[in-house]
TrEMBL record:
<keyword id="KW-0238">DNA-binding</keyword>
<dbReference type="InterPro" id="IPR011006">
    <property type="entry name" value="CheY-like_superfamily"/>
</dbReference>
<dbReference type="InterPro" id="IPR039420">
    <property type="entry name" value="WalR-like"/>
</dbReference>
<feature type="domain" description="Response regulatory">
    <location>
        <begin position="23"/>
        <end position="137"/>
    </location>
</feature>
<feature type="modified residue" description="4-aspartylphosphate">
    <location>
        <position position="72"/>
    </location>
</feature>
<dbReference type="InterPro" id="IPR016032">
    <property type="entry name" value="Sig_transdc_resp-reg_C-effctor"/>
</dbReference>
<keyword id="KW-0902">Two-component regulatory system</keyword>
<keyword id="KW-0805">Transcription regulation</keyword>
<dbReference type="Pfam" id="PF00486">
    <property type="entry name" value="Trans_reg_C"/>
</dbReference>
<dbReference type="InterPro" id="IPR001867">
    <property type="entry name" value="OmpR/PhoB-type_DNA-bd"/>
</dbReference>
<dbReference type="Pfam" id="PF00072">
    <property type="entry name" value="Response_reg"/>
</dbReference>
<dbReference type="InterPro" id="IPR001789">
    <property type="entry name" value="Sig_transdc_resp-reg_receiver"/>
</dbReference>
<feature type="domain" description="OmpR/PhoB-type">
    <location>
        <begin position="160"/>
        <end position="259"/>
    </location>
</feature>
<keyword id="KW-0597">Phosphoprotein</keyword>
<feature type="DNA-binding region" description="OmpR/PhoB-type">
    <location>
        <begin position="160"/>
        <end position="259"/>
    </location>
</feature>
<dbReference type="GO" id="GO:0000156">
    <property type="term" value="F:phosphorelay response regulator activity"/>
</dbReference>
<dbReference type="GO" id="GO:0005829">
    <property type="term" value="C:cytosol"/>
</dbReference>
């Protein structure tokens, strides 16, 4: 049964070209949800289509890539979290927004820990889903900002597309993170932008609020632990390739990137 709220008729703001033409795939077992969301997104300039299962999604991705997937969690057979897990091995994969009637904070954190870029609670409206899509795509369309945290002890801003730190290499233009042993490590869009922020302004303390702003998260709430989840997930990935501490939590201030950062020639 379709449980998305009415989307109303008020006009929406014009989207940037890099966002408005994006290819979106809706994955939901409810035909009503699929029809409502795809119709709304197509009406507003997106290349949207829908499938009803993980199998159908994989067949679709074999034919053509997409920019973002809106993925329902509660589906019969293979559920959304299983599908999400199968997509996370790709370093250049699409953005993923989970859609769920489950309101538990634990479930939301699990989805974010697994690699989702956002998590939307049903019932909601196509208008809100479109706003979340726009936010994720906007983060993908723009390189990470290098603004220093106001009032922090400033270290030199690193101007480069390729960085080296603690045996790792990170090519921000190609969005490629390589571990000390040479393995390519998949990162989500939020992790990519967060790492770019740390590397361009190493040794500055970045507050949760500034990371939320620079990664494009709108309407940040001080009690929202989403940024902490993303930092924790990035920290664990970096810890697997090095025994060194990479990201340190600075009590009541934010996060500090510890390694020496070098600008490399790509």
């Amino acid at each position: 049964m379709t449980d998305l709220a009415s989307h109303g008729t008020a006009p929406l703001p014009t989207l940037p070209p890099a966002v408005s033409g994006a290819r979106i795939v809706i994955v939901d077992d409810d035909p009503g949800v699929r029809e409502l969301l795809t119709g709304f997104l197509v009406d507003h300039g997106f290349g949207a289509e829908a499938v009803g299962s993980g199998k159908a999604l994989r067949e679709r991705l074999e034919r053509r890539e997409c920019d973002l997937i809106v993925l329902d969690i509660m589906m019969p057979g293979e559920d959304g979290l299983s599908i999400l897990r199968s997509l996370m091995h790709r370093a250049d994969g699409p953005g993923i927004i989970m859609l769920s009637a489950v309101t538990s904070e634990v479930d939301r954190i699990v989805a974010l820990e697994m690699g989702a870029d956002d998590y939307v609670i049903k019932p909601t409206s196509p208008r809100e889903i479109m706003a979340r899509i726009r936010s994720v795509l906007r983060r993908r369309a723009a390189p990470g900002s290098g603004e220093a945290q106001p009032g922090a002890a400033h270290a030199p801003h690193v101007t480069s597309d390729c960085f080296g730190f603690a045996g790792w290499t990170f090519d921000s233009r190609r969005r490629k993170l390589v571990a000390p042993g040479g393995a390519v490590v998949a990162v989500t869009e939020t992790e990519y932008r967060m790492l770019a922020i740390f590397l361009r302004d190493p040794h500055d303390v970045h507050s949760r609020e500034s990371l939320a702003d620079l990664t494009g998260k709108e309407n940040f709430n001080g009690n929202d632990r989403t940024i902490d989840v993303h930092v924790s997930r990035l920290r664990r990935k970096l810890a697997r390739g090095s025994g060194d501490e990479i990201i340190r939590t600075v009590r009541n201030r934010g996060y500090l990137f510890l390694p020496r950062v070098e600008a490399l020639v790509a």
